[in-house]
Amino acid sequence: MSNRQTMKAVGFYRYVPLTDPESLVDLEIEKPVPAGRDLLVEVKAISVNKADEDVRSWGNEGNDAPKILGWDAAGIVIGTGPDCTLFKPGDEVYYAGSLDRPGCNSEFHLVDERIAALKPASLDFAQAAALPLTSITAWEGLYERLGISRSEQDNRNKSILIIGAAGGVGSIATQLAKLAGLTVIGTASRAESAQWAKDHGADHIISHKEAFVPQLKELGLETVDYIFCLYDTAGHFEQMAEAIAPQGKICSIVPLNQPVNLDLIFFKSVSFHWELMFTKPQFKTEDMIGQHRLLQAVADLVDAGKVKPTLTQRLEPINAANLRLAHEKAAAGNMIGKLVLEHFQV
């Protein structure tokens, strides 16, 4: 454990394009102190999501202090707040964090213990860091928002369409949906992404660049019971409305960037749900400890060989230059699996 009172971090002071060296900069900032139910974690690896670049685009106006991004980490607990009961120093944990606190792109990081879990014992820190945000999003989207049972028997003859099945969330959602006994139809637009989705449990692949229903009919399906939209909600809304079964359910993780006609799903009595894994920690909901429990359940599934890790690319060290590169890759929207950075530059 370091006795230094400062730590290395990567952040930004103002929004500028990623091509500008000031878009993300190397920093030396004060090391945080745990309070309440905080864990102080020595960060070993971080993953980058499209959310990082989205939040960076919100800017940092009116703040003299730099903004630290990052919502996927794995590391070692080196300190705890006085109210902690779930962890102790030395525990190896993984988590996604909260939007209302500094992100994990720092040597040491504070996280509420109710949204962290022991990392999968069978994975290294980099593999574990690829999982939290996507696992929470997939789990909450499938089991809480869509209300899908985890029992294979309950889901016999039921189907789900996952739009963007080869991305970070899609890679986990496909596996969880298959474990629940659903027939999984994933969308992909490239041969390599289609193969990745199949390798992670998709029964069928269709293109999200073509009309859904004709492709589903070729598979012997008139409609699907559930749709999990992980890409371009507005652009796919009419296709989803046509493909969803009467009384079916749609969940999306992507905000609408333009108006859509909700009346398209009225006559089918279809319900539409949003999933944002930051909601529980940001609003301190009574059930936020559910993220601790679901991450522990995912870790158990990984260690049992029932869920595959989704890491596809590693970068090191953790510094501004590599994080700019990672942001560019994540923002491009065509990532297969997850990209992870490890080891802060000494």
Question: TL;DR?
Answer:
One of its GO terms (cellular component) is cytoplasm. This protein has 346 residues and is α/β, with parallel strands linked by helices.
Secondary structure layout:
Layout lengths: L5 E7 L12 E6 L7 E11 L1 H8 L9 E2 L4 E8 L11 E4 L12 E5 L3 E3 L6 H5 L2 H14 L13 E5 L4 H12 L3 E5 L3 H9 L4 E3 L5 H7 L5 E6 L3 H11 E9 L18 E4 L4 H5 L6 H14 L7 E5 L4 H12 L6 E5 L4
Parallel strand pairs: 9-10, 9-12, 10-11, 12-13, 13-14, 15-16
Antiparallel strand pairs: 1-2, 1-4, 3-5, 3-7, 3-16, 5-6, 6-8
Helix pairs in contact: 1-10, 3-4, 3-9
Question: What features would you describe in this structure?
Answer:
The chain is of the alpha/beta class and 346 residues long. The chain folds into 2 domains: 6-131 and 279-342, Quinone Oxidoreductase, Chain A, domain 1; 135-274, NAD(P)-binding Rossmann-like Domain (Rossmann fold), CATH 3.40.50. Helix content is 28%, strand content 25%. It has 10 helices and 16 strands. The chain has helices spanning 50-57, 125-129, 132-145, 168-179, 191-199, 212-218, 233-243, 279-283, 290-303, 320-331; strands at 6-12, 25-30, 38-48, 67-68, 73-80, 92-95, 108-112, 116-118, 159-163, 183-187, 204-206, 224-229, 244-252, 271-274, 311-315, 338-342. Strands 3, 5, 6, 7, 8, 15 and 16 form a 7-stranded mixed beta sheet that branches. Strands 11-10-9-12-13-14 form a 6-stranded parallel beta sheet, sandwiched between helices. A 3-stranded antiparallel beta sheet has the order 2-1-4. α4 links the parallel β9 (159-163) and β10. α3 (132-145) crosses α9. The protein starts with 5 loop residues before the first strand and ends with a strand. The mean pLDDT is 96. Its main location: cytoplasm.
